[in-house]
């Protein structure tokens, strides 16, 4: 979540680069906004929010599997309620019985995040974890893992050790510092899908040729497309335009354009696709799509 709004109040959330670890939040009305900074633990779960003066504006304790216990945060000397009084689970700062002077306490803070990538759902008490919901009371997901055994033997398990593991997508957890959730192209690393610039059908007469034969033909087709649609050059970049342009003697490059890869589709080997090189090499579920059983489409070619 990047932005939320309740009535005239809104909240904007900023994250650490290429992750779901929250960094800061700007909240309030158009006339009165405040910036709060996140203090997170080793797996990216928020422990505190502090204001511009360094004062705690939101705080929570966590049970082993991520169930949060929020605290009232009344400034010492101005409220009867002590700093750090526990009040239970919830999306933000609340009030406990015995608080007598609410007007002088800190304002309500919109803070729905729990374990990295999770958002507290007020209606169910569950944590929204992208691909499925997580129950922090029992430390299990409420539905099976959509990536099956790729995510582990237990379809409902969050991880074996919540002290050093995180699962920001609700698919497959990892140890140590949370891995980037996006590759260099901005594609989620947990996604089995990839971006596609162009898809071409290889002519039957060259299907039995080498990769270089296929790449040469594909580069020639891309050059013809660029000639027919000059606006495409602005999208792909001058390096790509120069790469596929025939040389002085009419020769065409037999390698993929810079930053891109000609990929033989594993689902239909007669199709050759132009995709971002970073995605072609990216780890994660996308490799099962690109190279199922570690085999690409080129090895499956046959003229039909």
Automatic annotation (TrEMBL):
<dbReference type="InterPro" id="IPR050708">
    <property type="entry name" value="T6SS_VgrG/RHS"/>
</dbReference>
<feature type="region of interest" description="Disordered">
    <location>
        <begin position="81"/>
        <end position="103"/>
    </location>
</feature>
<dbReference type="InterPro" id="IPR022385">
    <property type="entry name" value="Rhs_assc_core"/>
</dbReference>
<feature type="region of interest" description="Disordered">
    <location>
        <begin position="276"/>
        <end position="304"/>
    </location>
</feature>
<dbReference type="Pfam" id="PF12639">
    <property type="entry name" value="Colicin-DNase"/>
</dbReference>
<protein>
    <submittedName>
        <fullName>RHS repeat-associated core domain-containing protein</fullName>
    </submittedName>
</protein>
<feature type="domain" description="RHS protein conserved region">
    <location>
        <begin position="36"/>
        <end position="69"/>
    </location>
</feature>
<feature type="region of interest" description="Disordered">
    <location>
        <begin position="159"/>
        <end position="192"/>
    </location>
</feature>
<dbReference type="Pfam" id="PF03527">
    <property type="entry name" value="RHS"/>
</dbReference>
<dbReference type="InterPro" id="IPR001826">
    <property type="entry name" value="RHS"/>
</dbReference>
């Amino acid at each position: 979540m990047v932005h939320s709004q309740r009535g005239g109040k809104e909240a904007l959330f900023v994250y650490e680069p290429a992750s779901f670890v929250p960094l800061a939040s700007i909240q309030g009305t158009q006339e009165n906004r405040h910036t709060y900074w996140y203090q997170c633990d080793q797996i990216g779960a928020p422990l505190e929010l502090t204001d511009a003066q360094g004062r705690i504006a939101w705080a929570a304790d966590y049970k082993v599997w991520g169930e949060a216990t929020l605290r009232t945060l009344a400034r010492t000397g101005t409220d009867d309620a002590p700093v750090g009084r526990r009040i239970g689970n919830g999306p933000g700062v609340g009030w406990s019985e015995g608080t007598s002077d609410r007007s002088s306490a800190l304002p309500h803070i919109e803070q729905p995040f729990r374990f990295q990538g999770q958002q507290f759902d007020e209606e169910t008490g569950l944590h929204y974890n992208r691909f499925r919901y997580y129950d922090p009371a029992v430390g299990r997901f409420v539905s099976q893992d959509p990536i099956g055994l790729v995510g582990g033997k237990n379809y409902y398990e969050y991880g074996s050790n919540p002290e050093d593991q995180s699962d920001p997508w609700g698919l497959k957890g990892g140890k140590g510092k949370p891995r980037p959730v996006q590759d260099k192209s901005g594609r989620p690393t947990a996604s089995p899908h990839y971006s596609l610039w162009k898809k071409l059908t290889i002519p039957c007469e060259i299907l039995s040729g080498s990769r270089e034969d296929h790449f040469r033909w594909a580069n020639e087709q891309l050059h013809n497309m660029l000639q027919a649609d000059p606006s495409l050059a602005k999208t792909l970049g001058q390096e790509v335009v120069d790469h596929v342009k025939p040389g002085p003697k009419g020769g065409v490059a037999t390698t993929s354009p810079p930053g891109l890869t000609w990929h033989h589709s594993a689902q239909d080997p007669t199709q050759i696709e132009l995709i971002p090189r970073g995605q072609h090499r990216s780890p994660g579920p996308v490799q099962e799509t690109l190279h199922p059983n570690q085999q690409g489409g080129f090895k499956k070619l046959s003229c039909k």
